[in-house]
Amino acid sequence: MLMLLSVLLKLTGVIFLCIAALGVIRLPDPFQRMHAATKAGTLGAGLVLLGSILSHGEMDAVVLGLLTLLFLLLTVPVAGHLLGRAAYVSGARLALAGGDALEGVLRRAPHPLDERIKWPPNQPSGARKAGPDERQASAPFRHLVEPRGALKPLPALQAVRFAVIDGEVQPPAERACSIAKGNGTSLTAHVLIDTHAIAAASEQAQMRRQIRDRASRALLALKACTLRTGSEPVLVYDEGDPEQLLTCSEAPGRTLLVLPCKGWFHHQAEGRRDLTTWDPDGLLRLPSCHRGPVLYTSGKALPESARTIVVRDCGEEHLSALTEWALLSGLWDVTKLVHVTSRPGSPSHLAGVARRFGCDYLQLAANGDDCSIPVGTEDVRAVILGHTPRPLRTSWYGTPWRERIAPGLESDVLIMEPQTSAPA
Questions:
Q1: What separation in angstroms does the CA of 47 have from each of 4, 7, 55, 147?
Q2: What are phi and psi of 73, to 5 degrees?
Q3: Which single residue of 29, 111, 189, 248 has CA 20 to 30 Å from 304?
Q4: Cβ contact 42:72 at 8 Å
Q5: What is the pTM (predicted TM-score) of this model?
Q6: Can you tell me whether residue 395 is helix, strand or coil?
Q7: Tell me, what DSSP letter sits at residue 268?
Q8: 83 phi and psi, to 5 degrees?
Q9: Domains with residue ranges and CATH for the chain
Q10: Is-contact 256 161, C-beta < 8 A?
């Protein structure tokens, strides 16, 4: 009799486990899948355990089975609650009808994770893909394109992300919060730890602790900054190669990366091993990884009269589109556009960009082939570059990298590298 009851309990448990597995596979959102896994899964596993206890019948099997069942009942509900909370906070879609009962209670990401990492969404088999003409017609800012020979404009800004580096937290955080709020976009703060710095240290464990402590201090400064600005960025904490962690596969223009003008993700911790050639200096390599606009800001308060934007034209084809995108995104309030070019007198789409935004247009001759602008350019609010100044070092023989653009430059610098391949 006990053996028959044991078999029935095991069969019933297996049926519930199959139902739980089917629910995990077929239910539409993570909250329903979590419900199937925790409720039906726990019931099925519990019944299988009870059947095993009855089939063995010995005291040690009974004690072990009951302890296992107790462990399941104590841990699975907690795990389900934490998984559901994590799914909600990450912005997972809600498939059930009705309101969001947790709105205003828990902070929630504005977009689901698959949209943020551009995972291809499931498309119904009967859905028709938009043709190239339809995609072009639906592109933003199409009405701003010049009638003939103009470049395709960049898409609208959809996300702003910024680096959190100890000692350089406030400038990029405040600037990113302001831009995201002005454009109604998502906001992400990246707190990264460069593992190359740990590998190059003489005492790696001590270096890791030191960097993590400084990153924690940067987080406290970030919290104070976001409280002042009234913003709630999504926080991303990770360890690895920052150039890989900040790689962006979005179409150039959809995501803006805001960085300080100095510092790195070892958070200025010292402890490099002797005779090690690795140098923690990679800020100017990030535009090539980000594949889109990168804004370097020092946070220095400029005078109200600084309303000139300087565009250094070295022949990059995307420079006019980048300038138009920056003005459409409201990065600065400017009244004058200075076009510095090696080909003075040649026609440029930048004149049309200045005209559309009501800015005075002035064309100046460049002094050389580098990214420098003429000395004496006054009231500069920002400089736009079509490629990163070389060498890719924030300090070259003791000279800050913005000094290579103009002596004493304190303005923002917006950079976007040429795109060598079509965006994914």
A1: 14, 10, 12, 73
A2: -65, -25
A3: 189
A4: yes
A5: 0.65
A6: strand
A7: T
A8: -65, -40
A9: 2-89 (no CATH), 159-415 (3.40.50.12370)
A10: yes
Q: How far apart are CA 171 and CA 355, in angstroms?
A: 31
Strand partners, 272: 201
| pLDDT for the residue numbered 342 | 85
Contact 313, 350 (CB under 8 A): yes
Which of 321, 334, 350 is closest to 253 using CA atoms? 321
| pLDDT number for residue 118 | 56
What is the average per-residue pLDDT within 21-44?
A: 84
pLDDT single digits (tens) 367-398 = 877 888 887 778 899 999 999 998 888 888 88
Spatial separation of the C-alpha atoms in residues 311 and 324, rounded to whole Å: 11
At 44, list the tokens.
Answer: 């099925």
Structure tokens at 349: 């789409």
CA distance 308 to 144: 22
Q: Where are the alpha helices (DSSP H) in 184-203?
A: 195-199
Pairing of strands 399-400, 395-396: antiparallel
> Rounded to whole angstroms, how far apart are CA atoms 281 and 395?
9
Q: Tell me: the pLDDT tens digits for 62-99?
A: 888 889 989 888 888 888 888 888 887 877 777 665 66
CA atoms of 282 and 280, how far apart (whole Å): 6
Q: Give the residue from 263, 260, 269 showing the smallest Cα distance to 200.
A: 269
Distance CA 260, CA 175 (A): 10
Token reading at 12: 């019933």
pLDDT attached to residue 188: 94
